[in-house]
Structures are given as structure tokens and as C-alpha cells.
Amino acid sequence: MKGTSRHRRIVPAMISVLAVALAACSGGGELEVTQAWARTSPSMAEAGAAYMQITNGTDNDDALVGVSVEPAVAGAAEIHETVAAEPDMGDRGHTATSDTGAPMMEMHAIDRLEIPAGETVTLEPGGYHVMLLDLVSPLEAGSTIELALTFENAGEVVVEAEVRDSAP
Amino acid sequence: MRRRPILAHATPVLGSKVRRFRTASLALVLAVTLAACGGGAALKGAVRNPPLQVGSVSLPGPDGQEVAMKAEPGGLLLVYFGYTSCPDVCPTTMADISEALTELHPDQAEKVTVAMVTVDPERDTLEKLHEYLGHFFSRGLPLRTEDTARLTEVTSAFGVQWEIEEHEPGETYDVAHTALTYVIDDTGTVRVEWPFGFAADDMAADIASLLEEAEA
């Protein structure tokens, strides 16, 4: 009888060790994209934005080098970054300045977004984002859109982004 | 074809000159707030000392009538300079303001008008701007002029800067712009300014204290 009860304790313990080992295995070796969402868009808007967290659980640096979207959602997708800009005094743009000097913000496309080994890079409002151009129809709350992300090492990762009014 | 930014520093690489906007605007808020130390109401946004007076400038509104930069008596006018093709910063700010208004008592929210001045009149028609604001607010006020001198007169009054990316006709382009939200009272005084990323809760708190002050 003693043997059986010891057995009962050992088996669950072994199972939990196994489970933890397996969890560590997958968590420690993958590139993961989580909390993907896109903001709802006004009916006339041609542009939209999607955000997410990218965690590189591998031992190798990686980089997001491309993104694409279903043609049913938007004409194109690009990786963008919003940054603070210094005013340019050139004659091409319209620049109004004053001594208050409130900073401008501007957005530009980037070719690659580094995702260092063991780190999480967050795409969020006011920073990195996936810009959706030429929206086919408005992004409506409750729907989801599919984005295909291309990483230098991890290859293609397809994510479902939930359309929401604000960040999850 | 890759679009080329007009700003020399804006080459698409992550150089050390690139600062995240949030950091820059927080620094501005801190500087302005410190300068305003000793002010009356405990507002959460940035208070300028002396405050900006913008009531003397105006822009054409929905029916072509001139809209002065001042609130209705006892109300508040929130003014933002942006453009509707902006996918990240403008909708984020509009969504934050919209959330703030839903947090307020409906009687207070009713006293708030949200105006957006387009810095991209080439693409933003008044109808488009009206529809854009309608996505976020029941009381949105679109303001637009094609006259650059008039727009500059207004942006100068606020200290707003903007810059249109060089582009070929018909090509997509971005517009760099100051992304603060200005809260104006019925005398045309800018009472408080909110940087990009300012929390909806704090916006609601500022609106409530300013409206309560106006009632007192």
C-alpha cells in the first residue's frame, strides 16, 4: 500500500516536470507575435494602422523586414515609425514657427525593424506601426485582419489582428 | 517607388537624432509646467505662462462661416491640427479625446466642441474632414482653408508647425505636424495643452476642472 501512494505522488510530479520542460522548450526557442490589433478607421479614411508585440525568444537576433496584408483589406502595408522632427527651414514645405517651438511629429517607412535576441519590441501608437494604405473598406470593431510578417530568420509569420477602437 | 522625405534628417534609418515623440513632448510639458509653477487650478496638462491668446484668429468652418478660436460661452473648444490620411498619431489622439468625453458627465461633455484644422487641405475636403470627425465625435468641428497665408496665421498663433512631404501630383505623402491638443475657453485663452499620448483620464479631469471653474 505504501508503494502505491508514493507512486501516486511521483507520477503527477513527473508530469508537471515534463510540462514545465516542454513549456520552457517552446518559450525559449521561438519568435512570437502577440496582442496584434488594428484601430477602427473612419469610413472615408484611406489609411489605417496595426500594432503588436514581437518577442524574440531565440538566441539569434532577428529583424522584421516586410509586411503584407490581404488584398481584400488594403492595397499595401508598410512598416512605419513615428518620430519627433526638427523644423526644416527649406522652401519646399510650409513651415510656420514661433518661439514656442512645439515639436512636430512625422512618420516614415523603415526597411527593417531589429528584434534582438531575447527582447520584446512593441509596435504602439506614436512609435512603430504597420501602416495600411488604400483601405478597401473601413476597419470595423470586432472584425479581424490577417497580416503576414516576414522576418529575416524566422521567415513568414501570419498574425490575426483584432480591430478595436483602442489598445487592448 | 519609395517616397522621399523632404527633411534632411528624416532619412529612413534609425539614427541617434531620432527621438521618440513621446519623450520630446513630455520634456516640453515638464518645461512648460515648471515655467507655470504657482498657477491656480491643478491641471494635469501643460499650462503656459503667460497663456496663449488665440481668440482673434479664425478659420472657415462647415458652412464657410468664420469660426473664431474661442469656445461658446461657458464651454471649451479643443483644437487639434492634423490630417485625415494620418494613420497613427491623429486617430490615436481623436480616440483618446473621444474616450475622455465619454468619461465625463453628459452635461459636461455637451459643453465641449472638438475642432480639427487640416494641415493637408489638398486632400482633405471639408466633407472628408467632417466625416472623419464624425467617426469620433457627435460635436466635431472641421476647419479648413486652402490659403496658406491664413493657415500660417492661425498655426503661428498656436506655435504649431507643419510640413508637407515633397511629392509628385497624385502620389501619397505624409505631413509632419505638431500634435498637441489645445484647450481654449470662451475668452480665446489656451488654458491647457495636451501632448500626444496624454491619458484620456487626465484629459477628462482637466476638462471637468475647467468647466467647474467656469461655472463657479
What is this entry, summarized?
With 168 residues, chain A is of the alpha+beta class.
Q: Approximately how much beta-strand content do the residues of chain B carry?
A: 15-25%
- SSE series of chain A: HEEEEEEEEEE
**Approximately what portion of the residues of chain A adopt beta-strand conformation?**
over 45%
Under CATH at level 1, the class of chain A stands as Mainly Beta
Main-sheet strand order of chain B equals: 5-4-3-8-9
Quote the CATH topology of chain B.
Answer: Glutaredoxin
Q: What is the second-level CATH architecture of chain A?
A: Sandwich
CATH superfamily of chain B: Glutaredoxin
- Tell me the count of domains of chain B: 1
The CATH top-level class label of chain B: Alpha Beta
Helix coverage percent of residues of chain B? 25-40%
- What's the helix count of chain B? 6
CATH topology of chain A: Immunoglobulin-like
Fraction of residues of chain A in helices? 10-25%
Rg of chain A, Cα atoms, Å: 23 Å
Radius of gyration of chain B: 17 Å
Describe this entry's structure for a reader:
The complex is a heterodimer of chains A (168) and B (216). Chain A has 168 residues and is α+β, with helices and mostly antiparallel strands. Chain A has a single domain, classed as PCu(A)C copper chaperone (Immunoglobulin-like), CATH 2.60.40. Chain A is 15% helix and 46% strand. Chain A contains one helix and ten strands. Chain A has one helix at residues 2-27, and strands at residues 31-39, 48-56, 62-69, 74-85, 104-109, 113-115, 120-123, 128-135, 144-151, 155-164. In chain A, strands 1, 2, 3, 4, 5, 6, 7, 8, 9 and 10 form a ten-stranded mixed sheet that branches. Mean pLDDT of chain A is 84; it is low at 20-27 and 89-100. The termini of chain B are far apart. Chain B is of the alpha/beta class and 216 residues long. In chain B, strand 4 (112-118), helix 4 (126-136) and strand 5 form a beta-alpha-beta unit. In chain B, 33% of the residues lie in helices and 19% in strands. Chain B has one domain (8-215): Glutaredoxin. Chain B has helices spanning 21-35, 89-103, 106-109, 126-136, 148-158, 200-215, and strands at residues 58-60, 66-68, 76-82, 112-118, 140-143, 162-164, 175-178, 181-184, 190-194. The model of chain B is unreliable at 1-20 and 34-39 (pLDDT under 50). In chain B, the strands form three sheets. Chain B has a five-stranded mixed sheet. Chain B has a two-stranded antiparallel ribbon with strand order 1-2. Chain B has a two-stranded antiparallel sheet with strand order 6-7. Chain B is built from six helices and nine strands, in the order H-E-E-E-H-H-E-H-E-H-E-E-E-E-H. Chains A and B meet through strand 4, strand 5 and strand 8 of A and helix 1, helix 2, helix 4, helix 5 and strand 6 of B. Strand 5 (104-109) of chain A pairs antiparallel with strand 7 (175-178) of chain B.
